[in-house]
């Protein structure tokens, strides 16, 4: 199976899916998301696969959604969707292929996992971070919302609100403390540690693994996770179609000087608070 924006391979009973746009910090565009969904279909259909490891090429797991196809990512959900769906619904449907996959999915968080990338980590079943990982939901700083409202289910309400309302990013140890990942390992041991977990899963009775994942997911769904996604899509559609003075300034700088200049302007506004 060959793709342009991801690398998909299987070694024995373990499948590996690597986001492969390292020059864009593995930002999510329509092409990558379509390939990702196709690879998830292959994982589901392959009876030999018992566990999947997802990671990113280069220094990022995933920097979020591409806001410009030829520029850098800034966590905007401008991703192509399936026919008959809105772009937001399309990307949610793609992420939910991980949630609904009958095989356990392990996130090997090798670097930046921001915005949509942070949400992709959270929808996985097991999350292990490199000590070089950085995580956050900075979408609000770019004038966008989080389409997959999973952070309040991953961390406690206090942490979720602070992280999502400020757009702050945190290092790997803080990500583990708040519950975004289960643990942190040395960078050069990340894949080996994920493989160790995957190998344990491969040795277990598969009907038990499948039903346990299903039952845990069902518990989350009974707590309102699916309804939260549905209502959040309505709110995010309003959010993404609205504007603000900050967003207008960001867009004006981006048009005149390029996306990097706009991102620098956005981030500079918060620098003084970090001293």
- How many beta-strand elements? 10
Query: Percentage of helical residues?
Result: 40-55%
- Reported by name, the CATH topology is 2-enoyl-CoA Hydratase, Chain A, domain 1
| Count of separate DSSP helical elements | 11
Outline type = globular
In total, the number of domains comes to: 1
Classified in CATH, the superfamily is 2-enoyl-CoA Hydratase, Chain A, domain 1
Mean of residue pLDDT values? 89
Taking the alpha carbons of the first and last residues, their distance comes to 49 Å
What strand line-up does the widest sheet have?
A: 1-2-3-5-7-10
CATH level 1 name:
Alpha Beta
- Could you describe the largest sheet, including whether it forms a barrel? 6 strands, mixed
The amount of beta strand, in percent, is 15-25%
Give the C-alpha Rg. 18 Å
In short:
49% of the residues lie in helices and 16% in strands. It is α/β, with parallel strands linked by helices. It has a 6-stranded mixed beta sheet, sandwiched between helices. Strands 4-6-8-9 form a 4-stranded mixed beta sheet.
Please explain how this structure is put together.
- The protein has 275 residues and is an alpha/beta fold.
- It has a single domain, classed as 2-enoyl-CoA Hydratase, Chain A, domain 1 (Alpha-Beta Complex), CATH 3.90.226.
- It is 49% helix and 16% strand.
- It has eleven helices and ten strands.
- The chain has a six-stranded mixed β-sheet with strand order 1-2-3-5-7-10, sandwiched between helices. Strands 4-6-8-9 form a four-stranded mixed β-sheet.
- A hairpin with a 2-residue loop joins strand 1 and strand 2.
- Helix 1 packs parallel to helix 2 and helix 10 crosses helix 11.
- The longest helix has 17 residues.
- It starts with 5 loop residues before the first strand and ends with a helix.
């Amino acid at each position: 199976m060959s793709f342009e924006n991801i690398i998909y391979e299987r070694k024995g009973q373990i499948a590996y899916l690597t986001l492969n746009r390292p020059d864009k910090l593995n930002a999510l565009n329509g092409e990558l998301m379509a390939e990702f969904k196709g690879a998830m279909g292959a994982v589901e259909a392959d009876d030999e696969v018992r566990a999947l490891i997802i990671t990113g090429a280069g220094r990022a797991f995933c920097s979020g959604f591409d806001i410009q196809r030829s520029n850098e990512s800034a966590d905007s959900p401008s991703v192509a969707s399936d026919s008959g769906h809105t772009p937001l619904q399309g990307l949610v449907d793609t992420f939910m292929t991980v949630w609904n996959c009958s095989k356990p999915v392990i996130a090997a968080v090798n670097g930046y996992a921001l915005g949509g990338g942070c949400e992709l980590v959270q929808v996985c079943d097991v999350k292990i971070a490199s000590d070089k990982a950085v995580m956050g939901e900075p979408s609000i700083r770019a004038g966008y919302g989080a389409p997959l409202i999973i952070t309040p289910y991953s961390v406690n309400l206090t942490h979720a609100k602070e992280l999502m309302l400020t757009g702050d990013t945190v290092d790997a140890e803080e990500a583990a403390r708040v519950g975004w990942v289960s643990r942190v390992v040395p960078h050069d041991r990340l894949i080996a540690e994920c493989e160790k977990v995957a190998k344990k899963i491969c040795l277990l009775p598969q009907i038990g693994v499948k039903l346990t994942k299903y039952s845990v997911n069902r518990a989350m769904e009974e707590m309102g996770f699916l309804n939260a996604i549905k209502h959040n899509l309505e709110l995010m559609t309003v959010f993404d179609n609205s504007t603000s003075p900050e967003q207008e300034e960001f867009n004006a700088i981006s048009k005149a000087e390029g996306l990097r200049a706009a991102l620098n302007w956005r981030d500079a506004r918060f620098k003084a608070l970090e001293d």
